[in-house]
Design brief:
The chain is built from five helices and 13 strands. With 270 residues, it is α+β, with helices and mostly antiparallel strands. The protein folds into two domains: 209 residues, BirA Bifunctional Protein, domain 2 (2-Layer Sandwich), CATH 3.30.930; 44 residues. Helix 2 packs antiparallel against helix 4. It is globular, with a radius of gyration of 17 Å.
């Protein structure tokens, strides 16, 4: 079932809500292929084929997570800056999540390259995952889809047993119910000025950098070939989006996983 929703702020050209879809990223990609202008937004209560980086899947009970994807036609960004779309989506959702759950500013951190996490006894717990996908980059019709899945209304007693020690939700953090409609509205309100800034050549590199939980910690880099290296992460490069480790830059395409050496990160995606 598909439900047309009232248009949100000026940022959004089209949005629809689905009871169940394979992947909201695929829905938005199809819209862009058909000529839908940016920024379009698809939201689902459940995904049957949600995905993350490297073929991982997103696990969420129906209605337990806010699952959405945004479609952009970023002619206003250089190809090497497209990573900033996922960055501003992450920042906007971190701020919206803190407000809806009434959490202190900075509670929700970013774990390079694509997770929203919270510090907890025993290590980090994953709150959300972000997945960016692009098409026709370098042409006059570039397309970018940014998907995000946020554990919103899920209570701890409903978490999958194999993930319970490595995940959290806004409902758990708030010790009470979370309304996904409110979370979405707060998110778009915070995303709109950030996207407008990108269109005018500005990016909140300081805000993105300050929320990085990997900075000044040892991390395990798992290469695409399965190799593992423990290094010290000294920060992130706000110009390139790279993770800075032991005097060198690491880019997303080089690494399959990044794990803090003293924690366990949950799998996830969109």
């Amino acid at each position: 079932m598909t439900r047309l929703l009232p248009l949100m702020p000026q940022l959004i050209s089209r949005q629809e809500r689905f009871d169940v879809v394979g992947s909201t990223n695929d829905v938005v990609r199809g819209w862009l292929m058909d000529g839908t202008p940016e920024v379009c937004l698809a939201r689902a209560d459940e995904q049957s084929a949600g995905r993350g980086r490297d073929g991982r899947t997103w696990t969420a009970r129906p209605g337990g997570a806010l699952l959405l994807s945004l479609g952009f036609r970023p002619v206003w960004l250089r190809p090497e800056q497209l990573w900033r779309l996922a960055a501003v989506v992450s920042l906007a959702m971190a701020e919206a999540g803190e407000e809806v759950a009434r959490l202190p500013e900075g509670t929700i951190a970013l774990k390079w390259p694509n997770d929203l996490v919270v510090e907890a006894p025993g290590g980090l717990r994953k709150l959300a995952g972000v997945l960016g996908e692009t098409d026709r980059i370098g042409t006059d019709d570039p397309r970018a889809v940014i998907g995000i899945g946020v554990n919103g209304a899920w209570s701890r007693d409903e978490f999958p047993a194999d993930l319970a020690d490595a995940m959290t939700s806004l409902a758990e953090l708030a010790s009470g119910p979370i309304d996904h409609d409110t979370l979405l509205t707060l998110f778009v309100d915070r995303l709109e000025p950030r996207v407008d800034d990108l269109r005018h050549g500005q990016f909140d590199g300081l805000g993105w950098s300050e929320r990085q939980v990997t900075t000044d910690r040892d991390v395990d880099l798992v290469g695409v070939d399965g190799s593992r290296t423990t290094v010290n992460a000294t920060g992130v490069d706000v110009e390139t989006g790279a993770l800075l480790v032991d005097g060198r830059s690491v880019f997303v395409g080089e690494i399959a996983h990044v794990r803090l050496s003293d924690t366990v990160a949950a799998r996830g995606g969109v």
